Amino acid sequence: MTEAAAIQTALQCPACAGQCTFLPTEQALACQSCGSTHPIELDDDADAAAETPYGVDLVAEDRPVPQQVRVHHCETCGGDVIFTGPILSERCAYCDGPVVLALQDTGFATMGLIPFAIGEEEAQACAQRWVSRRIAAPSDLKGIIAEARVAGLYAPFWTFDSTETIRYWAQYRTGSGNHARTRSTEGDMEIVFDDLLMPASPHVTPLIRDGILHEFDPARLRPYDAAYLAGFAAEQHHQTVEEGLAANADDKDLLIRNRIRKHIDKSRIVSLEYQSDTTGIHYRRILLPVWILHYSYEDQPMKVVVCGLHGRTFGERPFSTWKLAGYAAVLSAVAIGFGVGWGAGGLL
């Protein structure tokens, strides 16, 4: 029996042999035939939050392994997602493009995941609340998003720990006019990153990343198990640790520079250079849940992203030209009225 077939068998309902999917609201498997629910019982929950050390002597151990899973390759964005359980889709969870079935994927074992905590209906409700708060949104947008295709996806992320021993050099400005001066400063500091959360795939766009990056709690991690993925799409990990560190180097550089600026405590820094000695790298390969709502407005594809943990919502949306014009007219009238009032007051 293949690995994929074994997973399908394990997800059969013990009551009627129907196929089960993961039900976020119950944190259990639910049979699609008889409706019965079955708890997911795992003994090693504590191990899911364990971190793995990384160093030069461990690079050779970081090798991908072939996995016989049902992989669907997107012909539009190139993303590869797997489906577990009976619910399959002919569309990509990332971009809504068409997907084709592949037989096997080569990736890295996932160390843990945080299961979906909110279901599809709540995700749609979050999207509707988000739309209702958008200024100058077209009047028909709420109805269009109500008809959006909703995709539940486990997206791959890294968590990184490291200690950065920093030596920095900076210049900053003081005074103004003839008293303006450029001064120099340098110093040493240590920065400790704990559970720095980073995307592990180029298909995790900034919109998806922003929808999931908040309020990450490693205590909520659970062991990787097919039961949590049943009925959802997921992207496997394909990056080595070295590739993951390189892919997220710019984000880490920005965080380091912000920490240094705060340490220097000068408001007009004009140049900043630093050297860092990185030690104590630990990592996890994890999956995090996100709902993606795909819709089109005037033939322009857009998406709304809802975090599968707490419902935080980000999205792309159009603007109503008429509403923008109306807001501009109101602001202009207010400005003119203020100017007239100010001028009249000056004549008194």
**How many helices does DSSP assign?**
8
Helices and strands, in N-to-C order?
HEEEEEEEEEEHHEEHHEHHEEEH
Distance, first to last CA: 93 Å
The level of helicity is 25-40%
Strand content: 25-35%
The total of beta strands comes to 16
Which value, in Å, is the CA radius of gyration?
A: 25 Å
Q: Could you report the average pLDDT, rounded to the nearest whole number?
A: 85
Which shape, going by the Cα principal axes? globular
Question: Biggest sheet: strands, sense, closure?
Answer: 11 strands, mixed
Poorly predicted ranges: none
SS class: alpha+beta
Q: Care to describe what's here?
A:
By secondary structure, the protein is of the alpha+beta class. 25% of the residues lie in helices and 34% in strands. It has helices at residues 3-10, 120-132, 141-146, 206-212, 226-229, 241-247, 249-264, 321-347, and strands at residues 20-23, 28-31, 37-39, 52-53, 65-67, 71-74, 80-83, 99-102, 105-107, 112-113, 149-174, 181-199, 233-234, 269-297, 300-307, 313-315. The strands form three sheets. Strands 4, 6, 7, 8, 10, 11, 12, 13, 14, 15 and 16 form an eleven-stranded mixed sheet that branches. It comes from Roseobacter sinensis. Keywords: Membrane, Transmembrane, Transmembrane helix.
